[in-house]
Design goal:
By secondary structure, the protein is mainly α. Helices cover 66% and strands 0% of the residues.
């Protein structure tokens, strides 16, 4: 019902705020824009599209692929 939708939206909002806070911390530590997995710089177009990105496209695709194989 409506309560379930409200709870889901609140959860999504909370996760997005957490991601923004984490991005702000990475920026303050000069780690913003660096992939957490391979430590290479994240592509500019990815950062523009998703400022909270923690991984480069290659690592994101590898992670996505491995998750798909687990299902």
């Amino acid at each position: 019902g409506d309560n379930e939708v409200d709870a889901t939206l609140a959860d999504l909002e909370s996760r997005e705020l957490n991601e923004l806070h984490a991005a702000k911390l990475r920026f303050a530590q000069a780690d913003f824009g660096r992939c957490e997995l391979c430590e290479q710089w994240i592509e500019k177009k990815r950062i523009i599209a998703l400022p909270t990105a923690r991984t480069c496209m290659a690592c994101a695709q590898l992670a996505e692929s491995s998750l798909a194989h687990r299902s």
